[in-house]
Specification:
The protein is an alpha+beta fold and about 425 residues long. The chain has two domains: about 130 residues, 2-Layer Sandwich (Phosphorylase Kinase, domain 1), CATH 3.30.200.20; about 240 residues, Transferase(Phosphotransferase) domain 1 (Transferase(Phosphotransferase), domain 1), CATH 1.10.510.10. About 25% of the residues lie in helices and about 15% in strands. It is built from nine helices and 15 strands. Strands 1-7-8-6-5-4-3-2 form an eight-stranded mixed sheet, with helices on one face. It has a three-stranded antiparallel sheet with strand order 9-11-12, with helices on one face. The longest helix has 20 residues. The radius of gyration is 22 Å and the shape is globular. It starts with 12 loop residues before the first strand and ends in a 20-residue tail after the last helix. This is Kinase-like domain-containing protein.
């Protein structure tokens, strides 16, 4: 078997013994095994994340996500949702049951255990507290926080070169995930975090990620569907945990969902109120609407490429490309599936001219910087997943607008 072109998967310690105590000094801080617990740095749907220090490793900073193995409230809600949502009919349920809390944690850990890459948050240890039914996920600490991309008036706060650099890091991380058969399913700025020195961006939050046996080890180019096969016992275990039919379920964040995920909303568009008309479109928008394909396209890693396009748009313009004025999710899905996106006159905090949509520069002559980026966006935000650019293609000149071949050298000061 040829060696994968990336580092081998991380060695993640699995610990079943748990000692919890208080530090001997006045602070009486909580100590869990050899980790000193600091302040909470975030709360997700399923757990709380704390900044901690690894006392056995020179007080290295780590982040520990604490999750309850069982979350009766979430499990009950899941059951209720399953009962209330009609199984037949033209639309997929918006909030599919992705399984019990325990199943979710198992999947998140299985995904993170496969990963060891400079642009993917690293899982270091899992502490399994059977007595108190808690799981502690010890990760590298990302002290720079989430990417901030807009101000309170939805104006961009990042320069174009900064946005390019962020996307470059995400592409390298995604390329690695996709090679492993991992589809992240929730790429968006909130799941991209800075290291403390703000030099590197890492992909985080594998809460809805999926490992597709069919798409494992097939590279990111060529066919987006792939045909990988299980290679080891470990792979066979992953196949048991991850069922590819789950990929059809709607998971992720509405504004970032690819048209193929919400395909049914493009075939039968819910009525839009006049206020829900596309508000992203402007005089520069290319008005051609793409008719949905007659059959549901497969759900592949191309959904992450679409979400990357939405993310790049957000960083450049301070807003999402598809928007409806009401908070109506179905209306938004209709717009994503059937409407085109528009661009403003300038992009980024440094106001680089976009020069509108549809740049037709000859292949031997590059467009302006803004023009090249819009060309890239056109190919990332391609509604037909078969025509959407692959990550391999993004790296080929002249599209190599994100300087993927160059070492990262841009320090972001925010
Ligand atoms: N490795 C990390 N280092 C520093 N802060 C982190 C790290 N991981 C998560 N956080 C912070 O903790 C917050 C909660 O993260 P978490 O993954 O639990 O929740 P989430 O992103 O809302 O996902 P979910 O919906 O799956 O619970 C994040 O928004 C982030 O601010």
């Amino acid at each position: 078997m040829s060696r994968p072109p990336f580092d081998p998967a991380a060695d993640v310690r699995i610990t079943h013994t748990v000692h919890q105590g208080r530090s001997a000094d006045h602070s009486r801080d909580v100590i869990l095994n050899h980790y000193l617990r600091g302040p909470s740095v975030g709360k997700g749907q399923h757990g709380t994340v704390y900044k901690c220090w690894d006392l056995a490793q020179n007080n290295t900073e780590v982040a520990i996500k604490v999750v309850s193995r069982h979350n009766p409230r979430a499990d009950r809600l899941n059951q209720l949702k399953r009962k209330r949502i009609p199984r037949s009919g033209p639309h997929l349920p918006v909030t599919d049951n992705l399984g019990s809390q325990e199943y979710k944690i198992k999947k998140e850990i299985a995904v993170m255990k496969l990963c060891r890459h400079p642009h993917v948050v690293r899982l270091l240890e899992v502490i399994d507290d059977k007595l108190y039914q808690k799981v502690y996920m010890v990760m590298e600490f990302l002290g720079g926080g989430e990417i901030k991309w807009r101000d309170s008036d939805s104006n961009p706060v990042l320069r174009v070169d900064q946005s390019r650099r962020i996307c470059r890091d995400v592409i390298l991380g995604l390329e690695y995930l996709h090679f492993q058969g991992i589809i992240h399913r929730d790429i968006k700025p909130a799941n991209l975090m800075w290291t403390s020195d703000r030099r590197t961006v890492k992909i985080t939050d594998f809460g809805v990620a999926h490992i597709s046996a069919a798409q494992r080890f097939v590279g990111s180019g060529g066919s987006q569907t792939g045909s990988g096969a299980a290679r080891s016992d470990g792979d066979a275990d992953l196949q048991l945990l991850f069922d590819d039919s789950e990929l059809c379920k709607t998971a992720g964040t509405p504004s970032f969902l690819a048209p193929e995920v919400i395909f049914d909303f493009g075939t039968e568009i819910p009525p839009l109120s006049s206020s829900d008309a596309l508000i992203a479109g402007d005089s520069n928008s290319a008005a051609t609407l793409q008719a949905p394909a007659p059959h549901r396209p497969p759900i592949t890693k191309a959904i992450d490429v679409w979400a990357l396009g939405v993310t790049l748009y957000c960083l450049l313009f301070g807003k999402t490309p598809f928007r409806v004025e009401s908070n109506h999710e179905f209306a938004l899905y209709g717009v994503i599936c059937t409407q085109d996106w528009g661009v403003e006159e300038f992009m980024g905090f440094d106001s680089i001219p976009t020069e509108g949509r549809q740049h037709n520069c000859p292949n031997d002559r590059p467009c302006s910087e803004g023009g090249e980026i819009i060309k890239l966006l056109e190919r990332l935000l391609q509604k037909d997943m078969h025509k959407r650019i692959t990550l391999d293609e993004v790296k080929v000149p002249p599209l190599e607008i994100l300087c993927l071949s160059q070492p990262s050298n841009l320090l972001i000061n925010l």
